[in-house]
Design goal:
Length: about 300
């Protein structure tokens, strides 16, 4: 079996950029992406802080990066990794379709949406409960929705939904949004309602979502408000299960621990993008992917006795 130089796990901005850099430095690589190439950035309604583009839809930007990367990298799309091991010499990657060997691994596995964990969230998923405004916003035109969360994602999604003609209310657990100031200014100028100091305790509905039960965390007052949908945007959880299989160090915040060169606690294992925490922007994911590829190239080029 031919041994790869690098196996890249994950096809979001970090993995795709790692692929471009690793291939251009002459390494033999393969990328494994269990879902859709582009990762979570696909779901950003638009992106206004990726240099070179004043404003671009997340999916369009990722299509462009993906098309560029595929000129250099073979992507094993839809091929999920079932196990990862190290025989002391090489990494052995078992997937749903076969087995591969690689001398180095780059984790770019990203993150998944955090759930609220309240009654009704699971049973009404797809019937009013959503985690992606770009994917599902269209179905709520001229209706009334809530967005739970106070970060950049919640703010961006609220603005996107409002522009679709939807009556939007942000529900945030504190008395101030976490989102950057320019987004907060847009929210205010568009007249988007914000309910502060409140958490969702339950989501009600028979066939589809009908109302939310809210609790004011300062007064303990309970209220029930009618909505047609709720978009839950309360951050994300890094996908570290495969990293744990190799015993890669995880930091206190639950992300893969890397140094400034994207090297992990295990030799020849690197990580980049959302799975490493930090600033979690598309531009930083790309940057980390490039650095990880460069570190792998440096380490693979070292004579074996060093
Ligand atoms: P985030 O920045 O971590 O914000 C999560 C929000 O959800 C916070 O406001 C948090 O409240 C709230 N929250 C967390 N757990 C909750 C719970 N159980 N119940 C109620 N509320 C809860 O996550 P994000 O907005 O998804 O963004 C993820 C990353 O992508 C961030 O690094 C962000 O900067 C980046 N991003 C950037 C842009 C942009 O640059 N334009 C756009 C989208 C995303 P507290 O505020 O009280 O902690």
């Amino acid at each position: 079996m031919e041994v790869l130089d690098v196996a890249i796990i994950g096809g979001g901005p970090a993995g795709l950029t790692a692929g471009i850099y690793a291939s251009r430095s002459g390494l033999k690589i393969l990328m494994f992406e269990k879902g859709i190439s582009g990762g979570a950035a696909n779901t950003a309604p638009w992106v206004e802080n990726y240099p070179g583009f004043e404003a671009i839809e997340g999916m369009k930007l990722m299509d462009m990066i993906g098309a560029q990367a595929r000129k250099y990298v073979e992507v094993k799309a839809g091929e999920s990794i079932e196990s990862l091991a190290n025989d002391g010499n090489e990494f052995i990657i078992k997937t749903s379709k076969g087995e591969y060997r690689a001398r180095a691994i780059i984790y770019a596995t990203g993150s998944v949406h955090r759930r609220l964990g309240v009654p009704g969230e699971g049973s009404l998923l797809g019937r009013g409960v959503s985690y992606c405004a770009t994917c599902d916003g269209f179905f709520f035109r001229e209706k009334k929705v809530a967005i739970v969360g106070g970060g950049n994602n919640a703010a961006t999604e609220a603005i996107y939904l409002k522009k679709l003609g939807i009556d939007v209310t942000i529900i945030h657990r504190r008395d101030a949004l976490r989102a950057e100031e320019s987004l907060q200014n847009t929210i205010a100028s568009m007249g988007i309602n914000v309910i502060y100091d409140s958490v969702v305790e339950e989501i009600f509905g028979e066939k589809k979502l009908e109302k939310l039960k809210l609790k004011n965390v300062k007064t303990s007052d309970i209220s029930e408000i009618e909505f047609d949908g709720v978009f839950i945007s309360i951050g994300d959880i890094p996908q570290i299960e495969l990293a744990k299989e190799l015993g890669v160090g995880i930091n206190d915040d639950g992300y893969i621990d890397v140094d400034r060169t994207q090297r992990s606690s295990i030799p020849m294992v690197y990580a980049a993008g959302d799975v490493t925490g930090g600033f979690r922007q598309i531009i930083t994911a790309c940057s980390e992917g490039a650095i990880a590829a460069n570190s792998a190239h440096e380490d693979l080029a070292k004579p074996y006795w060093i």
